[in-house]
Amino acid sequence: MEDTSKAMPVPKRSLGAWGLIAVPYFWLLVFFLAPFFIVFKISLSQIAIAIPPYIPTFDLSEGWSAFKDNLAMLSFDNYVWLTEDDLYWKSYLSSVQIAGVSTFLTLLLGYPIAYGMARSPKEWRPTLLMLIILPFWTSFLIRVYAWIGILKNEGLLNQLLLSLGLIGEPLTILNTNTAVYIGIVYSYLPFLVLPLYASLEKLDISLLEAAEDLGCPPWRAFWQITVPLSLPGVIAGCFLVFIPAVGEFVIPDLLGGSNTLMIGKTLWVEFFANRDWPVSSAVAVILLLLLVIPIVLFQNQQQKMAEKDA
Amino acid sequence: MSIGPVRRDFTPWEDPSAIPFIEFRNVTKRFGDFVAVKNLSLKVYEREFFALLGGSGCGKTTLMRMLAGFENPSEGQILLDGQDLAGVPPFRRPTNMMFQSYALFPHMSVEANIAFGLKQDNIAKTEIDARVKEMLRLTKLEAFAKRKPHQLSGGQRQRVALARSLAKRPKVLLLDEPLGALDRKLREETQFELMNLQEELKMTFLIVTHDQEEAMTVADRIAVMDAGEIVQVSTPAEIYETPSCKFVADFIGDINLIEATVLEKHAGGTRLQASDPEFLIDTDQQTAATEGEQVWFALRPEKVRINHGSPSGESVNQSKALVWDIAYMGDVSIFHSRLSESKTMRSTVANVTRTVEQPISWDDEVTLSWERNAGVILTS
Amino acid sequence: MRNGPTWFNVTSLVLGFSFLYLPIVLLVIFSFNESRLVTVWGGFSTKWYGELFQNQQLLDAAWVTLKVAFLSASIATVLGTMAALVLVRSGRFVGRSLFSGMIFAPLVMPEVILGLSLLLLFVAMDQARGFWTVMIAHTTFAMCYVAVVVQSRLVGFDKSVEEAAEDLGCPPAKTFFQITLPIIFPGVIAGWMLAFTLSLDDLVIASFTTGPGATTLPMKIYSQVRLGVTPEINAVCTILVGLVTIGVIAASLVTKRQQVQRERDERLAFGPH
Prior knowledge:
- The structure holds 3 protein chains of 3 kinds.
- By secondary structure, chain A is mainly α.
- Chain A has helices at 2-7, 15-43, 64-73, 77-84, 86-118, 125-137, 140-151, 156-163, 177-202, 205-213, 218-246, 250-255, 263-273, 277-309, and strands at residues 46-47, 54-55.
- Chain A has a two-stranded antiparallel ribbon.
- In chain A, helix 6 (125-137) packs antiparallel against helix 9 (177-202).
- The longest helix of chain A is centred in the N-terminal third of the chain and has 33 residues, at 86-118.
- Chain B is built from 8 helices and 20 strands.
- Chain B folds into 2 domains: 4-94 and 170-247, 3-Layer(aba) Sandwich (Rossmann fold); 254-378, CATH 2.40.50.140.
- The mean pLDDT of chain B is 90.
- Helix content of chain B is 22%, strand content 33%.
- Chain B starts with 21 loop residues before the first strand and ends with a strand.
- By secondary structure, chain B is α+β, with helices and mostly antiparallel strands.
- By secondary structure, chain C is mainly α.
- Chain C has a domain at 64-88 and 110-231: Orthogonal Bundle (MetI-like fold).
- Helices cover 77% and strands 0% of the residues of chain C.
- Chain C has helices spanning 7-30, 47-52, 56-89, 96-108, 111-124, 131-155, 159-167, 172-201, 204-209, 217-225, 231-270.
- Chain C starts with 6 loop residues before the first helix and ends with a helix.
């Protein structure tokens, strides 16, 4: 978006045009940007048995000197605490690892689906596309919940495997990291398939024909032509899975076990169970910093693609 | 003697006392660092069919959009019927535009599209209905009044766009590449329809086009534009026969440009000397160039005769050549002949008979010749 | 030959779609299970649906959720459409990149962060939490989705159509309502539907920003799911899945019909006349 704006002239605006900008801008400043500063401020506060459960609270009516006293009470203690207790950095690491593994698995499963869709007869494609999007419209919570009944010890998967005689005793899948992987792959599959399908569908079949015509066997044409040209879709899809998966709460909470560490869950517990608002704020700030890099990378990549299309 | 056909007795641009209807006064338009229109001045007269002709990016569309009000000039003034248009928003300007993409409202029927402009002016409903009906008749769209734009063919859409922009009887109708999306045959038909409409409605039309044939067919006068500047403003015939510079000569039609030096200027015309091979050019044209100065002699291919054999007599207005290439186009044949290693000349011969006794063939030695008033001396 | 589906493509599609749909299908099947044990089939029954409609708490939660979703989707659609117009049409202005950043960031921001930050804002504003705070929170993140959906519709929009309206004497504001809005309307509707479903679906942000008396359906489902899988929950989920499926299929059928009609019209136009 920014790229095209550089070439745009700066138009003279009427009052109405300014209003058009101001209303959504103001809303986002108040309800999206401002809260982050509050989160940051509270991450520098201390936990207290009070309402709200932290100090200082900055009551401006108390005057300037009180304000200065309050300012002096802010400290980076919570961040120091995050480095001292290994629960936090283990949660961060484990989140990144779980999200990374899940993204890879999603790609492994999603690529053949997107490829199959892009190579299917033209009249099937809208239907297949709708079938990919449809689960996206159904509740996330329900889709995660559906797996509990399948994965638990006396669940449907174990019943099936036992009756087929493939296993002697039930597998423990629910409440392990495996269940979390399955949950993430299942929930985020459409996010990966959609951009990937878009880039595979754009691929001109005659390129593959040209490659074969020049003596390249189909499997090598796939690796040398199809895969490189679908790379933008792969990257976009992987970011769309990885970024939200890092901060995921519902999946590790419902499918994961007590030793499944994910930062979203840690934050939730810190906030709701321990009522330690300052520490959970600090966790949120660090999580945000962690995600800034992939988010910026993602935005840049999207922008490059947009420029290419234009 | 006159150059080309002259329409009616309509030549207000030759009358110094005529008041221009549209006037651009030293207009400059900048987009950032890019100068789209450079200090341009232009006068267009009432009831004129005026064409802005040029390649893409020459500023012709920008010029038109400034008149419609979609762009504001960075400097200069635009006047319409004596009124300065500065600060007047597009929806208050007495101009209407036919867009290149037609820009029909996809959610409205043909009727509603045509009535749209009239409804903005709080005109009585009966009056609107009458005007829409008239427009439908004029553009032969009566049978399609209730259809939506996507239910129409390209030619029909084009007519809706035309009817919509004419419905308000604007002081000036602006046409932005109006026929670009039509196929060749339909385009030619529509060109004549446009001319008839303009004649019938007695309105001022301003057309932007990159198609020289289109401009020459429809327009009373053409302004040839290049890099934000007007290079020449003249009638189509004058532009073709007496281009003011190499750019115009080259842009309009096909041309041979021969480098030469001015040998002699006299009351009856000018004598030029060409080299490699050496021959003389005698023309009845006077030139501003001084004797000894380097100039170009521009000669249209259809004005070059081609005959078998070597030239006889003095090498004036003729040269020997070798046939290099022949393109048979049906109606005409185009010969590319070599005067020397580096010089070629094109000549067009109308195929007036089906068979030729002694056809000119590849590698034949020929003589190229032309009349005294066939070419033009260009100094730039 | 080359365009025909190969066995590999068909297999991967069948397996992929089975993976996507089997869990939901199983969930639906077991909602009709007679037995309380969710994973053992005890015969067909609709009794859990009957019990559902006796559960006042659940019905209350559903009602709150629908109200929140309807209101927040509507406000988000207005704000999001405005934001999309700004992104596509407003050219450069001070803080433009901050603006587009704020539109795109919520799309990938973890929900726990959005929820926590909004809650802390409401606490700092000394705002009592409940229905309205959830509504505002949902509006905020849903408007970004609406903006993206409407924006994609606006990008493919021929701006000369608007210029034509102005050229014919229509002032800009009127042009927006008479020309622009009707043309981008399908995108606006799609944005509203997306905002509505997102709000209906949200657990995390609602959990942070809600207060007494404003328990939403996902929160209710979540608290019961934590206690274990029950047929009632299966029944609730089945109803929700059914509603969404009907909605999406109906919407796509309408679009398809319009498209077929359009193609027929176009053939008509280019036929002899």
